Amino acid sequence: MAKFGLGVIGAGMGAKPHGLALQSLSDQIKVTGVYRRHREQLARFCETYGLPAADSFDAILADPETEAVLVLTPPNAREEIIAAAAKAGKAVLMEKPVERSLAAAERIVALCDAAGVKHGVIFQHRFRRASKLLAQAVAEGRYGALAAVHLVVPWWRPQQGYYDQPGRGTLAQDGGGVLITQAIHSLDLMLSLCGDVAAVTAMAATTRLHQMETEDFATAGLEFSNGAVGALMATTASFPGGPESLTLNFERASATLAAGTLTVRTMDGATIVEGEASEGGGGADPMAFPFDWHAAQITEFAEAVRAGRQPLSNGHTALKVHRLIDALMRSASEGRRVEV
């Protein structure tokens, strides 16, 4: 079977793990071209990862070998790109978040639906081995009903070199702070394992450690549709930054995902440890994590497109985490319980 043809749009800071992943997948994925407006940065990226540069976005769409595009631009520069790709009949795989606001994210998902193209969203935490093992256990009901959930994202981002960059931490470019830019990965993973959240009671703030428009700290109580309850804390003001941790308490066991490791403690005395220790990007270097999670997601996306099915992480699953973040921020702003 011919290699899957993938064009790449955008090649900024967040493109590094994608470049490494595409290098590792060269026997399965053919990059039909990479396009970025800044020509020097484009040339540097393509030279680093051995990928072909494209003269324009239109050239990538016009290439009959392009089956899909991977969109890595900031969230404020995506809607026209995705509309053009969808019109050309190309499947879309894009970095999170879908867009800056829930309404804009819904428009993008609707665009892909109307055009009949498959739409994937990068949430690589779902593709860690430990995450997949826990997802299987949950699907099987191995440990009984879920009772309580505890999510902590104790990350660090410095002012200098990160939040001082133009547009970083603003509503106009990013759409929000720690929730939509960093914790969104863990929130998406939580929803994929625990089911939908029905209501939230939240607080959000900007600590004295950062000068930014949006929040660098958020906490909330969560009420899940299945009757479980939960607690969330997410921040980029926890120096030097540590691994995110998601604990699920079931009827017969507790299970904790920390970075890339799953630890299960059953009530009959057994302890099970699976996965691999890894950096999670929680410190000052946001790209300090392995690229194999991205490679696994790109592979699954290509397989889904070829099979004519929706990818595991798609526009509609992404809208669930967008709706949760929207509810969290409304609750924090209005000082009340908000239904999702």
TrEMBL record:
Could you name the domain of life of the organism this protein comes from? Bacteria
Q: Note the Pfam families from the entry.
A: GFO_IDH_MocA, GFO_IDH_MocA_C3
Every copy of the Gfo/Idh/MocA-like oxidoreductase N-terminal domain together lies at 5-121
The UniProt transmembrane annotation reads: none
Q: Which InterPro entries match?
A: Gfo/Idh/MocA-like_OxRdtase_N, Gfo/Idh/MocA_Oxidoreductase, GFO_IDH_MocA-like_dom, NAD(P)-bd_dom_sf
Signal peptide annotation: none
Domain GFO/IDH/MocA-like oxidoreductase residue range list: 134-254
Name the record gives this protein: Gfo/Idh/MocA family protein
Q: Which organism is it from?
A: Devosia albogilva
What is the taxonomic lineage of the source species?
Answer: Bacteria, Pseudomonadati, Pseudomonadota, Alphaproteobacteria, Hyphomicrobiales
